[in-house]
Sequence to fold (165 residues):
Amino acid sequence: MPRRVNVFFLGCVAFFLAMSCDSNSVYDEYQSLPNQWDMGNELAFQFKAPDTINNYNLYVNLRNNKDYKFSNLYLITTLQYPNGKTIIDTLEYKMAEPNGELLGTGFTDVKENKLWYKGYNNPFSFNEAGMYTFKVQHAMRKFNQVNGVSNLKGITEVGFRVEKK
Fold:
């Protein structure tokens, strides 16, 4: 009987190790937030371009919980190239179903969302070698209100990911 338990245990360990390997990931970093994202808190991620030949997918990763009360999310993003060129985008993502059920993966109240940034419709390649900086901040507003949401509750982590296409 102990031998069966050891074989089962080793099999489980091997399975989890295999699942945790991610050969497509080139860069993947998260920054933790105190269960809210302040409007003025622009998060920055600095990374080196892997190469200038291949295509890549770029993602904004979010972890949120049941305290997130909106059906969508607006972000302002900035991608700074090594030569100083800057691309600014305003993006919108769907975060919940019409019934209020949060989208994303996860078995608990915490959901993880992998949101497309670049590479979805058009191939993205780093056309300059060197260090890039990706910045992101939320741009949420309540319906019919001019001022933004100063403390966006329910966002626990924000990340940025670069994957081989």
Q: What stands out?
A: The first strand starts at residue 25 and ends at 32. The chain has one domain: 24-164. Confidence is low (pLDDT under 50) at residues 7-20. Strands lie at 25-32, 36-38, 43-48, 56-64, 72-80, 86-94, 111-118, 131-138, 151-153, 155-164.
